[in-house]
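Hi U.,

Before I forget, here's the chain from the pilot set. I'm dumping it here mostly so it's searchable later in email.
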Amino acid sequence: MRTSVLLAGLFGLAVLTGSVYIPVYRADFIWDDNLYVMPVDDLRTLDGLRRIWSEPDVLVQYYPLCYTTFWIENQFWGLQPTGYHVVNVVLHAGNAVLFWLVLRRLGVRGAWAAAAIFALHPVHAESVAWITERRNVLSALFYLLAMRAYLGFCRLGVSTATAAGGGGAARAEDTLAALQPCARRWPAYGLALLAFVAALLSKTVTCSLPAALLLIVWWQRPRLTLRDILPILPFFILGAAFSLLTWSIESKHVGGAVFLAHYTPVDRVLIAGRAACFYLGKLLLPINLVHVYPRWTINMHAAWPYFYPTAAAALVGALWWVRRRIGKGPLVACLFYFGTLAPTLGFLDFGFMDHSFVADRFQYLPSLGIITLVVALAAAAAARLGCAGTWGAPVVAGSVLLLLGSGTWRHSLVFKDSPTLWQATLAANPDCAVGHYNLATDLVDANRPAEAVAHLEAAVRLRPNYFSALSDLGAAYLVTGRVSEALATLTRAELLRPKDALVQHNLGLVFARLRQYDEAIRHLRSALECDPTYQPARDSLNEILRARAGLAPRQ
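Structure:
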């Protein structure tokens, strides 16, 4: 690849990405950032860094490389969000560049345009603008680096000279030369394996890489041989091992989810089929994007839900049937898309299913397949119509990029801060229980408990066993003087989690307000049994004991 072409393409992708995410640079921390970016103080030390790597359950998920980047940044700019946002944007721009290099290596038409669409697409705004989703952009960086290195190891794709000649399809003789057996580059294999491990340590969903590599090899070669399969086996083993580790850790948290229903195999197929079609629709027409989409009802007795999995299966089947006439490319792109989506389609339980079956961030990597296919088809159509050498194709491409970029700019504004995020979510999804709960938390933090009550009541109405909402609603009732309602609500919360120190403490305060001091003391002591380090319960207990002894309260 000529240096000038490389630098121009890299500079263009960097400028486009950095420009559309300007609103993000001044954004604040939002949902879950306190769990990963702003952990407890003892994780900000050198010993904390050791624990991030050596104790898999020290955080909710074992993604130590991702959390190490947060640890490093914490040493430089502490809890100032701008630095974290800038790093996310830089990583996303790097992913666009690597995507471009992979497509050029494979001789895909419109490689740079596909990379630019990936960089500017609104469905990726959630992964970039939400600091916690560093795991998405960081894991994708190593995923694409591993893919590019593996292509070099197998000597797959077109020569750099051919790729530099215009980014279009390779000449027939170059492609045939690339398909001939030749000496492999084992240092590149080592780099691919190392990058894959780094991807898994950033987010385990990248375990789909070996299947994607096998698809690419099958696409590029007339047929798969043992020589093609054997080098990929270590990737499959590593992916399986990390997946089992992640499942063993996250199943503890998913298993304790209050709202996660039991789904039959038929339910899961219906969920997966509809989710896959939903994602495809948002990718092709990225409008009405929502942070937490409404969770639909599963009706296995109706006929229409079966349309979605049937349509997905029919699409793959049709592309397989016509692969000899139109080539294997479209089939590979669709298999890559559905296969990379598979871990988040609902075949296995994951925590976010508490709130919705879909989320934009789940198609950050899968979108690569459909973007490649659509751009390649558009480039081929332009060439067939004789538009490739005219102003028509650049004008259309520029218009598409402008529309996508403006959509990303607007959508990234939603992630300005937590109240803005949840207000926008509730405007589009009024029945979002977690949205009501988080907005109520923001209102409490802003010393507006009376306004928070309505949202907490909505969260409990939507999910009667929502423990956190019940606990906070009881506390809000108490603060606003609605003592009897506080007692009833906290009693419901206690039935769900009898050993919760905060609930026991608040019950103690309620009974103290009712002048039932024996009950108050019992609950406060129970709070300390649940958590001996919970100082507010100790302070409240001491004050009640002093009052009963006739001593003046401490100043």
